[in-house]
Amino acid sequence: MNRLKKIIRSKTFMILAALVILIYLNNSSLFVKQGSGEPILLAHRGLAQTFAMEGIENDTCTAERIHQPEHPYLENTIESMNAAFQAGADIVEFDVHITKDDQFAVFHDWTIGCRTDGEGVTRDYTMAELKKLDIGYGYTADGGQTYPFRGKGIGQMPSMTEVLEQFPDKALLINVKSSDPAEGELLAAYLSKLPKQQQNLLAVYGGDEPIAALKERLPELRVMSKDTMKSCLLSYLSVGWTGYMPAACEHTQLHIPNKIAPLLWGWPDKFLSRMEQADTRIMIVAGDGSDFSGGFDTLEDIKKLPDHYTGGIWTNRIDRIAPLFK
């Protein structure tokens, strides 16, 4: 009886050991050819003013807590996007809000009182009215003693149409800052009029409802939302160790916090290779997922990435990061 137990235990151990070895070999990056290319650099809101991230809530006015300015650009403007591409960005991200006349204003906040000299919300204004505002009005680095951009942002809030016309051959990531499915429908109507070649350069992310509405109308467009992220990553965590790629992970975009990334099967090289074959773009963001706008903004941040990393990098300081790679 004891001998039988030993045999069973021995076989069980061997099976478990074989399974562990199989999982290791199937997900190890040791046997994947390391990428020789450069990582993809994404400039968050173009070349923008940065601010202290500590204690930020959903209603925090970040314009009131910027660092001392090191450049003259304001986020989400054509000038800041152009500067980001000139600095070496491969992709520029920008935010959109619907207006009273059913256009999309390129602006981060849904209210305008923090950054501008106006009050209310973007959807209460026409695009022409929003252009009369000074988008640099509220920026201060010294608690309100000085406002270095006041008077310099009049007419600088662009429409999404202007951005798309200005950069027809550049990769852009559009952030829908609402949960209104009607915005996804309207955005689909706008983007469907673009040449197919330009559509292929675009990706859109945002609230679950507008992204679902957009995807229904433009199924070939690369999109991302919390729902699409969960659908892909939960499926991948459960079966990815086998090498199987869930359908939810195909032709999409994933923003992966760097503290969570090592938990993914095959991270980094095997994972990146699988996602590339599935036509899915990977962007790594700083932190643990509590704030998906955290960027790799310094040399010390970059040192946290795996050696020879060739996926996407989210940065708020493309002017600092691009020279490290380009």
Automatic annotation (TrEMBL):
<protein>
    <submittedName>
        <fullName>Glycerophosphodiester phosphodiesterase family protein</fullName>
        <ecNumber>3.1.4.-</ecNumber>
    </submittedName>
</protein>
<feature type="domain" description="GP-PDE">
    <location>
        <begin position="39"/>
        <end position="325"/>
    </location>
</feature>
<dbReference type="GO" id="GO:0016787">
    <property type="term" value="F:hydrolase activity"/>
</dbReference>
<dbReference type="InterPro" id="IPR017946">
    <property type="entry name" value="PLC-like_Pdiesterase_TIM-brl"/>
</dbReference>
<dbReference type="InterPro" id="IPR030395">
    <property type="entry name" value="GP_PDE_dom"/>
</dbReference>
<keyword id="KW-0378">Hydrolase</keyword>
<dbReference type="Pfam" id="PF03009">
    <property type="entry name" value="GDPD"/>
</dbReference>
